[in-house]
Amino acid sequence: MDIRLGDIVRMKKPHPCGSYEWTIERVGMDFKLRCIGCGHQVMLPRRQAEKNIREVRREEGAAPAEAATENN
Ligand SMILES: [Zn+2]
């Protein structure tokens, strides 16, 4: 699954606040996600995050190329 910094992902299950959408704040071994509904941040292992993601939406120009290749 191609997920990049700045992407908005739609999860299969809603956060307790009711929002299905999260922004990607960090990619690498773990993903850092921020809930769009309430601002809550979580770290998830890549595999688990990918399992929970239903859809990726990329906003044009949201993710600079150099950020997408950032390597932690
Ligand atoms: Zn939330």
Task: Write out key terms for the chains shown.
single chain; alpha+beta; five-stranded antiparallel sheet; globular; binds zinc ion
Count of individual beta strands: 5
Number of domains: 1
Ligands: zinc ion
> How helical, in percent, are the residues?
10-25%
Mind telling me the C-alpha Rg? 11 Å
Low-confidence stretches: none
Based on Cα principal axes, name the global outline. globular
Would you tell me the structural class of the helices and strands? alpha+beta
Side-by-side strand order of the widest sheet: 4-3-2-1-5
Could you please describe the fold and organization of this structure?
This protein has 72 residues and is α+β, with helices and mostly antiparallel strands. The protein has one domain. The chain has two helices and five strands, in the order ββββαβα. Strands 4-3-2-1-5 form a five-stranded antiparallel sheet, covered by helices on one side. A hairpin with a 3-residue loop joins strand 2 (21-26) and strand 3 (30-35). It is globular, with a radius of gyration of 11 Å.
